[in-house]
Design brief:
79% helix; Glycine betaine transporter OpuD; transmembrane; Amino acid/polyamine transporter I; 0% strand; 19 helices; BCCT_transptr
Amino acid sequence: MKKSLIVFYISLAILLSLVLMGVFIPESLEQTTNSTQSFITNTFGWYYLGIVSFFVFVLLYLLISPVGKIKLGKHDDKPEFSKPTWLAMLFSAGIGIGLVFYGTFEPISHYAISSPTGELGTDQGIKDAMRYTYLHYGIHAWAIYGCIALTLAYFTFRKGELSLISKTLRPIIGKHADGTVGKIIDVIAVISTVMGVATSLGFGAMQVNGGLSYLFEVPSNILSQTIIIVVVTILFLISALTGLGKGIKILSNLNMGLSALLFLSVFVFGSTLFVLNLFMDTLGSYLHNFINMSFRTAPVDEESRSWINSWTIFYWSWWIAWSPFVGVFIARVSKGRTIREFIIYVLLTPSLISFLWFTTFGGTAISTERAGFSISTLLPEESLFGMLETFPFSLVFSILAILLIITFFITSADSGTFVLGMMTTNGSQNPSNKMKVTWGILLSITAIALLYSGGLLALQNTMIIAALPFSIILGIMVFSLIKSLRQERKDLMLNQLGYTPNKEKK
């Protein structure tokens, strides 16, 4: 067995074991993972709130600190992609398809179905629904991605390490980063990534099928979803074979173009004035309640605590579980940026775009609901199309939404195969086509098999469970980054004074 492929084969063996359990004993696996996930969210909710808030603090501190001038690369390294393309790529990988479906569903759900504060259907309930949506898709989510991506980019392009999560821990664990401990860390990251991309393929197929069924009465069943996965697999493999600078770049720019078109359509034809007022009001409420929401556990309010566990804690564990995939990808496309520039574009800019998107789609859905149209009773994958049905040219906008979902779908899968190729070929910056095709096919087979067996939810639960140990790894990564940045700043200051530590030691 080649040493460079050890992580690949171990990850493959674990993946096959999980898939086989999902296919042959789905109910047992789902029951076990459900109870384990419930135990984790109920027991470690305080921990998730604390560590994610810590990630936010670290990035905000680095943003204003002197180390913000440090470049993610050598002194003369230039960015590989323009700023608009860079933003499009990290945004497509970071949230992507979730924006299209949950942009409508989550705010209307918090307003009409399950309120974070018990204010169902009230004016105050609108504010609460929107600011908690901001919380779940804003600065905290991107801080998780930003911490892992910044650490990887710094150690890969600044320190010359291989692009592997284990190598970023060298300042903390030393030589163990190259041994068994390092391999275990990389395997955990690969498994987490595989489960994230595979579940997205499965649920994405269900969502596309739901949209087609709502609009064109296409049968909503396993066969339709399998066909969708096969078609999407062919498309994202074609894209993957063209390379990072072509396929993913073109798709990401296309995503942003289609997103802007759909956003402007809903903004113009929807409740424009209501949305503008709601955005300003919610932004103020979000900033005013930022600390409170970040640490809210509701220890004496069982109903509120249950809501926090089901939504906020679930999201924090979900973003952490997704972070190896998104972090590796964002790091790969961020060479040549300064730390300050990186944080602005990875933490603040996507958060603001998310706020605008959720206010426009969620606010319009709430306004439509209050006007007498029942949006909240629709399935999550149908809520967007139900809202668009109240618009003029509704069919055109709905087709545009489906196209956007598909392009986000393809981009996420394409990025996933690229990242998995990197992670299982010793951190290669340009994994072979053979490895990308292998992962693409494995991911699709996994998604189809679990769709047929009903084991997708169990795999999703397993991914959330994996977030707990990985959150510890991510925390150590951040301490490793801080330690290295402090040492580099110290060395730079000494060099400016004409003192070179290495020479002095000699």
